[in-house]
Amino acid sequence: MKNPIKENIKKINFSATLSINEKTKKLIAKGKTIYKFGFGLSPFPVPEKIVQVFKKNAFQNEYLPMQGLPALRDEIAKHLTKFTKNKLSRENVLITPGSKTSMYLMHMCFNGDVIIPQSSWVSYAPQARLANNKIHWLETNKENNWYPTAQVLEKKLKTLKSKNIILFLNSPNNPSGLVSKNLKELAKVARKHKIFILSDEVYADLTFSGKYESISTYYPEGTFISGGLSKWCGAGGWRLGFLTVPNQHKYYLTNLNKLASEAYSTVNSPTQFAAVEAYRGNLQEYKIKTKKILQAVGQYVSKHLQSYNVEASIPEGGFYLMFEMYSKKFKTSDQLSKAMLDEIGVASLPGSVFGFKPNHLIVRLAFTDFNGSIFLKKINVKTNITDQLIEKYAPKVAIGVKKLAAWIDKQ
Hints:
By secondary structure, this protein is an alpha/beta fold. It contains 15 helices and 13 strands. β3, α6 and β4 (134-138) form a beta-alpha-beta unit.
């Protein structure tokens, strides 16, 4: 029998982030010491008050509306209205099983060209290919926090013949851990050319400055927003995300709902009821403490990596950073990442899976290999998180980055 698999699916690899997670688990099961800097999983527990709401709603076994629980959509709309300054209601919001699904639905629904900056999350491009949308890459540089400039976007748009274009943006960014400083300028170009923007804001509540900034504030009529519980709420395995649709493009929601109805019907009911508490409840202390820990740990990792042949970003949000190595020994970032795992047990991801050219020696580290529950209990909102505290409560991160720094010096 002839291979019946579609060509665009055969060309797709397994998700790089999920693959490194499973690979490290297998190595650990074999007794190897691995420093897990590869997979971006929040180290913190889901807040107890949300867990209690989940338990109380475990009996909920009926299908909820395809678009999502109305009360949850209300709370997400209020949350985004507060931070984006745009008037949103439940009618703008679709609840999805994780933000990854929301973006996949968007790719499948959209018919046109997709613009993706370097650096970008590993699934943007594969999802676009699965949807048979043409991809265009935007070059970035460290001087602009690895975000495209308005001039670069303008130049790219002038070369495209398609009338349907969507730009994917992610701030704070995975993999760099940095925040865009030029959203207003990018929005101006987007409005001029009447393109769509998918603003991936899954890390926005983990912005260390405390300032939640969305490009939708400057370009509400053309911006879709995706987000969810996984990163800021420690609920990756709960799989709850959302997508908002601009008021001027409500027809998108109808079609997104059609796809959702045929793909997953509805998101599981207990999680949706619990998520209402996540967006409605007072979780300020939890958020402040988790951000303080992540900012301190990120700075610790960055500080210990800086050397004559390494430049590491200082994270501004989330739990990632990138480092760039200057070496003639390694020809590709994939070769460098594999050597780190094989020789010192440091798991990471190469820059090539985030859109960088293979010969650009950039590697992403996720600094989450520690017990967040214990760390949270040992500090309060005013605690000064010192290197000594990090070495005590995030020992694998501390040991792993020191091993990595020593290994790099020998290359």
